[in-house]
Design brief:
Largest interface: A-B, 24 and 27 residues
Strand content of chain A: over 45%
Number of strands of chain B: 9
Number of helices of chain B: 0
Order of helices and strands of chain B: EEEEEEEEE
Structural class of chain B: mainly beta
Structural class of chain A: mainly beta
Oligomer: heterodimer
Radius of gyration of chain B: 13 Å
Shape of chain A: globular
Radius of gyration of chain A: 14 Å
Helix content of chain A: under 10%
Largest sheet of chain B: 6 strands, mixed
Number of strands of chain A: 11
Largest sheet of chain A: 7 strands, mixed
Order of helices and strands of chain A: EEEEEEEEEEE
Strand content of chain B: 35-45%
Number of helices of chain A: 0
Amino acid sequence: QVTLRESGPALVKPTQTLTLTCTFSGFSLSTSGMCVSWIRQPPGKALEWLALIDWDDDKYYSTSLKTRLTISKDTSKNQVVLTMTNMDPVDTATYYCARIRQSGEFDYWGQGTLVTVSS
Amino acid sequence: QSALTQPASVSGSPGQSITISCTGTSSDVGGYNYVSWYQQHPGKAPKLMIYEVSNRPSGVSNRFSGSKSGNTASLTISGLQAEDEADYYCSSYTSSSSLYVFGTGTKVTVL
């Protein structure tokens, strides 16, 4: 049974760095073809793809946020970590992690974690 | 990378069929068969409904079907039910530097 769970601060101040952790079970990120991605959704708005890390430790980022994002994995802990620097109120959103299969779909999602950026 | 374009809202009566479009470019929807669709109820995480344009995951009702023509993908819901009322998003792999792109989202209302 595949599960993913996001964790991190619910509130961050402007200019701070956000660190989110995705803890997963039911699959291994060392298995060929496996990937984990981060997606966010501002309140009342659409989904936005942020970043992806694959089994081979290749990393991909949204062009518009590339300079602010870092994704990493700890295979032994079954965790993927996303950091986003210089947080701004417009970054207020629910942040999701999801597994991606080689056929390109996000087949399992975490429940999401709401991050509010406010002073 | 611009979001894929979806209609803001689509509605239908119970039992009817509706279709949601998802328009991109030759760099995403038109160039690859890695188009997927997600259903999202309020306050919930998205749920995969269709992958690789027209494949249904195990457990998803066969009332949901997908197709693609050129740069536009479509999701059809037949035999509309009250439980289908939700937001729907398409997604595609893209050859741009951003690996994936989502659609603008469509709110489906069952009248």
